[in-house]
Amino acid sequence: SLKLMYDRSKFNRVTIERMLGHLHKVLMQMLKNIDQNLSELVYITEAEQRKLLEEWNNNTISYPRENAIHQLFEEQVNRTPDALAVVDEKQQLT
């Protein structure tokens, strides 16, 4: 049995129930396979995973199809010349 106390001003019951469902799912996986790595544990449901990947990941944007990609870059440079354009481990380019 597990008794959970939480700050109701910060969390609602639905959120806590979802978090408990995640904890239950992880614990059941750990009981099934005690040698499983933590990185292999899945704590979200299939429905939550679908929402993350399909609904919340809707990042499609439209852009002018008549311009080539280098022209779009040039337009952006003209609009925001000091903004970061490329970042790698060692340097940043504007």
Automatic annotation (TrEMBL):
Stretches that traverse the bilayer: none
SUPFAM superfamilies per the UniProt record, alphabetical: Acetyl-CoA synthetase-like
InterPro entries given in the database record: ANL_N_sf (IPR042099)
GO cellular component term of the entry, any: cytoplasm
GO BP annotation list: amino acid activation for nonribosomal peptide biosynthetic process; secondary metabolite biosynthetic process
Any one GO MF annotation of this record: phosphopantetheine binding
Name by which UniProt lists this protein: Condensation domain-containing protein
Organism: Bacillus cereus
